[in-house]
Design goal:
Jelly Rolls; five-stranded antiparallel beta sheet; about 110 residues
């Protein structure tokens, strides 16, 4: 069993194109012998955003703190703390912090087999 406070997990800066003011922590990953899923914590500063992207796996997002908009190629949906998203495979998506505080969300992804 792994038990840590999230602040004990290294805070990384994504190097992807189209990212602004985003940090992430791999809370649970293959390093922990979690071979099916990973749990990541994203921290997005006010005005920051994840890239507008798509991929061939689904994932789930739980908004812990803050507010913003989730964008795809057709629309934008406002969100706030406590909201949940299911992103199907190949759906374009981006999370933008429109608030005044750091946006924090959990993102769970499968490992491809």
């Amino acid at each position: 069993m792994k038990h840590v406070h999230y602040t004990e997990v290294e805070l990384e800066t994504p190097e992807e194109e189209g990212v602004k003011d985003v940090k992430l922590r791999w809370l649970i990953s293959k390093k922990d012998n979690a071979n099916n899923f990973a749990m990541r914590l994203f921290e997005v500063k006010p005005g920051g955003y994840t890239p507008l992207h798509q991929h061939d796996w689904e994932h789930e997002v739980f908004i812990l703190e803050g507010e913003g908009v989730a964008k795809n190629k057709e629309s934008e949906e406002p969100f706030k703390s406590g909201d949940v998203f299911f992103i199907p495979p190949m759906e374009w998506h981006q999370f933008i912090n429109t608030g005044e505080k750091t946006l924090k969300f959990l993102c769970l992804i499968p490992y491809k087999k």
